[in-house]
Please model this.
Amino acid sequence: MTLKKYINKKDFAKIPEPQGTLSQAHEHLFVIQKHAASHLHYDFRLELNGVLLSWTIPKGPCFDPSIKRLALHVEDHPVAYGFFEGIIPKGEYGGGTVMLWDKGIWHSLDSNPTKAYQAGHLRFKLEAEKLQGRWDLLRFKDEKHWFLIKNKDEFAQPFDHYDVTVAKPDSVLSQHSIAEIAAHHQQVWSEEDALKAISHKTGLRNRTKK
Ligand code: MN
Model:
């Protein structure tokens, strides 16, 4: 049986722990960029259908399943942007200092992640440097307002015991703090630079230039 046929026959929603080739079929880039703009926030991005679906999380992620973190849905970003760390000039969209705060893979636990996204409920597993385990993004009220919620699993932790934004504040790319990036980085965002960065720094997937 080919992998494609096998995938078509499976209901991923019923599989708690996708393994091996099955999970690879549903693997996509996941990043969080810590962004010191007018207010510090965390930009949560999931690759789907060739773009980074994006949510701004003012307080950042939380490993406590009893705490819902507000996630404001914002416009899609190019996949290349997900590898960026550095400065966006003042006055430009997103102006400020950007840190690559977490990077890894997300596995959809929905058989059709595009449909799940449109329906306002994404269920997924994260394998990244800081975030792990089962999470949900759940829409409420309107198109913009979502919650990021940690599910109960072996990675869940009470907030008063563990705040990942405090325990692990720095970059997964450079190990720098926001202040260090702001002070020392010469890197200014351009899509061309990001495309170069992809070909050098990641073996995640082959991406073609436009
Ligand atoms: Mn931002």
In short: The two ends are 35 Å apart (CA to CA).
